[in-house]
Amino acid sequence: MFALLPELAVLALALAVLLGDLLRKGRARELAWLSVAGLAGAFLLTLRTTYGTLFTETLVADAFGVVLKQLFLAGTAVVILLSMREMERFAWKAEYLSLVLFVCAGMMLMVSANELITLYVALEIVTITLFILTAYRKRDALSVEAGLKLYVQGFASSGILLYGLSLLYGATNTTYLPAIAQALARGSPTATLLLGAVMVLAGFGFKLSIVPFHMWVPDVYQGAPTPITAFLSVGSKAAGFAVAMRVLVLALGSLQGHLIVVLGALAVVTMFLGNLLAISQNNVKRLLAYSTIAHVGYMLLALVMSPKVGAASLLFYLAVYTFANLLAFAVLIALSDAGGGEDISAFSGLVTRSPWLAVAMVAALLSLGGIPPVAGFVGKFYLFANAVREGFLLLALAGVVNTIISMYYYLRIVREMFIVKSAAPAVLPSFALKVAVALCLAAIVFFGLYPAPLLRSVEYAAALLVR
Amino acid sequence: MTLSAMLFLPLAGAFVVAMLKRERDIKFTALAASGATLLLALFAWLRFVPGGLNFEEQYTWIPQIGVSYHLGVDGISLPLVFLTALLGFLVMLYSWKQKERVKEYFLYFLVLEMGMLGVFLALDLFLFFIFWEVSLVPMYFIIGIWGGPRKDYAAIKFFMYTLAGSVALLLGIFIIYFKASPHTLDIPLLVKLSPLAGSLPLAGLVFWLLFVGFAVKVPSFPFHTWLPDAHVEAPTGGSVILAGVLLKMGGYGFIRVVLPILPEASRQWAWAVAILAVISIVYGALVAMAQSDFKKLVAYSSVSHMGYVMLGVSSAMALSSPEMLRSGVTALNGAVLQMFNHGIITGALFFLVGIIYERTHNRDLNKFGGLDQKVPLYAAVMTVVGFAALGLPGLNGFVGEFLVFLGSYGIQPLFTAIGLLGIIIGAAYMLWTLQRMLLGKPRVEYPHLEDMDVRELVVLAVLVAVMFMVGLYPAPILDIINSGTLAILGG
Lengths: 467, 491
What we know:
The structure holds two protein chains of two kinds.
Chain A (H helix, E strand, L loop, with lengths): L4 H19 L4 H19 L5 E3 L4 E3 L1 H27 L5 H18 L3 H19 L6 H32 L4 H10 L4 H18 L7 H8 L2 H26 L4 H23 L5 H21 L2 H31 L12 H4 L1 H15 L5 H15 L3 H26 L12 H19 L2 H14 L2
Antiparallel strand pairs in A: 1-2
Helix pairs in contact in A: 1-2, 1-4, 2-3, 3-4, 3-10, 3-13, 3-18, 3-19, 4-5, 4-10, 5-6, 5-10, 6-8, 6-9, 7-10, 8-10, 9-10, 9-12, 10-12, 10-13, 11-12, 11-17, 12-13, 12-16, 12-17, 13-15, 13-16, 13-18, 13-19, 15-17, 15-18, 16-17, 16-18
Chain B lengths: L1 H18 L3 H25 L6 E9 L4 E7 L3 H18 L7 H20 L3 H10 L1 H11 L4 H29 L7 H7 L6 H18 L8 H8 L2 H26 L1 H27 L4 H25 L6 H36 L10 H4 L1 H15 L5 H14 L3 H26 L15 H19 L2 H15 L2
Antiparallel strand pairs in B: 1-2
Helix pairs in contact in B: 1-2, 1-4, 2-3, 2-4, 3-4, 3-11, 3-14, 4-5, 4-6, 4-11, 5-7, 6-7, 7-9, 7-10, 8-11, 9-11, 9-12, 10-13, 11-13, 11-14, 12-13, 12-18, 13-14, 13-17, 13-18, 14-16, 14-17, 14-19, 14-20, 16-18, 16-19, 17-19
């Protein structure tokens, strides 16, 4: 039970926020700070996790899950900090906060799931709640359209995933992931099993926005409230990858020989398409949507590698990507909160208007592009180096070539901030936003200059995961 | 600690600059930080003991991937470290009159100085690569913000070109890393382990990956096209640092990384490097001759002069028998000295371009003339620097080129003979430039030209003094360089 304390804490927090909203109206701001404090508390609880399995082995508490849970808790706290202005502006009730917290709890359960049905239920908690959050700007047609798009593709992909999972069950007679791995190790894979694996892959493909299942991403990212876009681009991606790691790489590990070519090809296509399409975007939310697709492509490399190396690379990359992407969104939100809009031109002359935001944005973009000394460089270094180590020289080559392409459009924003002059007024971000920016900036600078502690914990988690 | 202090002083200066408001304070801080760095570099020079690494520092940093914070200088890096600190300081001094976006200007130059020093001081490939990339961003800003009319294009071209080179470099580093056992990125250790010995096809691949990374920076033909654009658009200080120091990072990479870690592949491919070097020399010189834009001319002359460096490096690469060792060491000594000299001379040339452009807003050589009557001091300095650039004995340019050709002749006589053409063409375009600018009738367009002020004179006097010192008595600097090249070529 103690292993589940962080999840329970987040759930309790969500309910407390709902209740608080019911008892005292118009206290959304205080409740938001309460949520941030509660998430910090849950973060502390994760430090004391006892490893093991729970509820007849349906849930597993391991170091791999803990690292991800910590990432979700930090990410969710940042998302709430970023939402405060938006909540004030549209007079959203605290119910919004509790939905965000439910997503967080769902993601934490997702990465703990040790069994297919539990996994599916956790996944649906996240997916369904995200439909609501995406369409939360109720009077904004784009937001509603985004919600609907997410809804349609979400259920379609859930259906495909569920069908794949049922085929896996049919072929192995068990829904437990370790048992599936054992069953597969005994014999050569059947056609049913392979079909199941491919359907599961396609299902994850939608959730993770792997090309060619990525069509929904730009519209949904553009339409959703920006904090939720940030949430989608980091939290649900991280959770999706963690589950993909557990199912595709660990449970179906013996199929890796069959899936490796498919995964490798998908990785290359995803990174190229994401980066090439990002070049011509003028809306920064759409640009970051395509950039997210490209990063998904990089992270797919981790699924091709041997499980231990792949898990460590994935965890590290996810951690630094999360903070860098949240930081980029934070600056974007600061600008659009100030009425600048969401186009690249909103960034004009930012270095004179608000130097710290400009510096933060440059750090975020350099990190996303993999330029030192910020953390993104170490993430890419570790990921691509491991790809070379595992013998995937061409995949690593594709990765580094894409790094070059991506810098081109990240530099477009840098150019707008530093080179283009603008008479627009200074940007005055809210206190909550400043906290979020400071947190993310500190994270990517710290992990960039001193990645040793994080590397140690992801390598430890990966070593325990694969035994 | 000396080296760490030297490395982080500019960064500390940058932090202080970021906090300051008054322009005067900012300029003083920048000057003080780079001045202190220069003093430390001078201190390191005086305390340097030839033979082996000096002032070595090593701390565990990222043990999981075998990376340590490892600094040190030897005879190859020391002259370049000094060059960086010297030009860094002189640029701050020259930029005293900077008016537009002062704080950012000095901040970027200070960060840039740290990046460049880091490249020359780092003895770990990870650290080396970090500084390599760190120097990229401030230079992008310097060209992009204070550049000329096509600054956008030039800045992004500079950035993308170098980035493309550096990812090739990164892939090469990965392969070296995983071939080494234990996995390490420590340069001295890698030299000892020689991880790719005996696997020639793979070593060849790594060689070419590293080649692309470093050759873009040098720049060697055919990767040189970013250079003229970057130089023409960059502000004076940017051009000085770009030509004076950044290009040396490429040449230094060949000597520090490629030559000692991949000796077999280097020997195998030396001929290709030599051919590209000779093309750079002759082609760069010919294109320089065709320019009427003074800045573009200096830019292309850099391609040609860095070709000498590459010729010297290729001769050291081609070294196959112990009898040739003397020649190889001479060629490599020449290459390192040529890098130092080129930094001094081209730095001075770009300062001179900047000084005259500030007064006339013109860089077209055909629209000058008779400057010797209008601005005699300027003309005198220009003449000395021009002669140093064309390799007149007694000035520093001659010594480096002479050693490169002397050494290379013993190893690859044919390429050396073709390369010598560069000297002739170089003399031709330099003399023609001096003639077009300084001689003839004064132009009516500029009736009231002011000669150099004290600040500008100090900047150039320092550089001219170094030209004479190295030109007349090169022994001290050559002793230092020689200790480094001997260690690398195993003499």
